[in-house]
């Protein structure tokens, strides 16, 4: 079942004398329960695309539909409600509030939505168990490692069971061990809870956890590949083949 549809989206920055086309006629759809990675060199438009889907940025032309609702038309309270109730965000720099404990950071969106206290407690405990952070719920961000912060941020994103989880370079600030743990959790949520995930990444290893990878070059879709029944190592090799076609140094471009 289709969850997300991006239809002929374009995004321009600047003015007539200096116009940059960040996205150029991009169209694709995402099925419910898919784990999709978006890859591309710096400046390719991948983060701009994620920002448009998250409604952080507005499209210049085209439409984006979530559950057949045109989110490019939303404004004011309806837009705020949509973000709060339908989307989960995971950022590279965590965006945790330093004055709140891990528990309070995770529970914040539920508190804003005025969930009953007992329901908040239950939801936070469940997601903390899923992500292995039960022992750090009483700690503040400054007391946590990078991997722990990212798992708290991930818990905050998924605690309300959003329709779509959007992750922007979620492993970018993590060491290899923490990255692997986080990606395994993403895989668990996708497989066991049918969570729909869209992840922007420069890392082919991270992308190999997805079920499909969309490659963007110069604001356009360059290619896309699906994992199918392939093992992750096989899918990684296929991703690297496309990365080679895109050109540039793999380590710093993709």
- Specify Rg, calculated over alpha carbons: 18 Å
Shape: globular
Fourth-level CATH superfamily: P-loop containing nucleotide triphosphate hydrolases
Characterize the biggest β-sheet: 6 strands, mixed
Strand arrangement in the largest pleated sheet? 6-7-8-3-9-10
The amount of beta strand, in percent, is: 25-35%
Mean pLDDT: 90
CATH class: Alpha Beta
| End-to-end distance | 30 Å
Tally of separate domains: 1
Number of helical segments with 4 or more residues? 9
Order of helices and strands, N to C?
A: EEEHEEHEHHHEHEHEEHH
Secondary-structure class: alpha/beta
Describe this structure in words.
The chain starts with a strand and ends with a helix. The chain has one domain (2-253): P-loop containing nucleotide triphosphate hydrolases (Rossmann fold). With 254 residues, it is of the alpha/beta class. Residues 249-254 have low confidence and may be disordered. It has helices at residues 46-53, 76-86, 102-112, 117-131, 146-158, 176-193, 204-207, 232-246, 250-253; strands at residues 2-15, 18-31, 35-39, 61-66, 69-70, 87-91, 164-168, 197-200, 212-217, 220-226. The strands form two sheets. It has a six-stranded mixed sheet with strand order 6-7-8-3-9-10, with helices on both faces.
What is shown here, in short?
It contains 9 helices and 10 strands. By secondary structure, the protein is an alpha/beta fold.
Q: Which helices and strands, and how do they pair?
A:
Elements: E1 2-15, E2 18-31, E3 35-39, H1 46-53, E4 61-66, E5 69-70, H2 76-86, E6 87-91, H3 102-112, H4 117-131, H5 146-158, E7 164-168, H6 176-193, E8 197-200, H7 204-207, E9 212-217, E10 220-226, H8 232-246, H9 250-253
Parallel strand pairs: 3-8, 3-9, 6-7, 7-8
Antiparallel strand pairs: 1-2, 1-4, 4-5, 9-10
Helix pairs in contact: 3-4, 3-5, 4-5, 5-6
């Amino acid at each position: 079942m289709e969850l997300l549809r991006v239809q002929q989206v374009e995004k321009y920055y600047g003015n007539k004398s200096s116009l940059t086309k960040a996205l150029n006629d991009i169209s694709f759809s995402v099925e419910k329960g898919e784990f999709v990675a978006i890859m591309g060199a710096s400046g390719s438009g991948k983060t701009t695309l994620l920002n448009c889907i998250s409604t952080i940025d507005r499209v210049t032309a085209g439409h984006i539909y979530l559950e057949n609702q045109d989110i490019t038309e939303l404004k004011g309270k309806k837009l705020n409600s949509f973000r709060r109730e339908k989307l989960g965000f995971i950022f590279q720099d965590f965006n945790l509030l330093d004055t709140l404990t891990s528990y309070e950071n995770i529970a914040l969106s539920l508190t804003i939505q005025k969930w009953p206290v007992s329901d908040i407690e239950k939801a936070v405990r469940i997601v903390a168990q899923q992500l292995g952070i039960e022992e750090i719920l009483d700690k503040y961000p400054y007391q946590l490692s990078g991997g722990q912060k990212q798992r708290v941020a991930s818990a905050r994103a998924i605690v309300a069971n959003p329709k779509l989880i959007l992750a922007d370079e979620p492993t970018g600030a993590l060491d290899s061990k923490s990255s692997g743990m986080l990606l395994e959790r993403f895989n668990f949520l996708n497989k066991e809870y049918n969570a729909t995930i869209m992840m922007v990444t420069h890392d082919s290893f991270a992308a190999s956890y997805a079920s499909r990878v969309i490659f963007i070059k110069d604001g356009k879709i360059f290619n896309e590949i699906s994992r199918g029944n392939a093992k992750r190592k096989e899918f990684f090799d296929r991703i690297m083949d496309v990365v080679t076609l895109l050109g540039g140094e793999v380590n710093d471009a993709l």
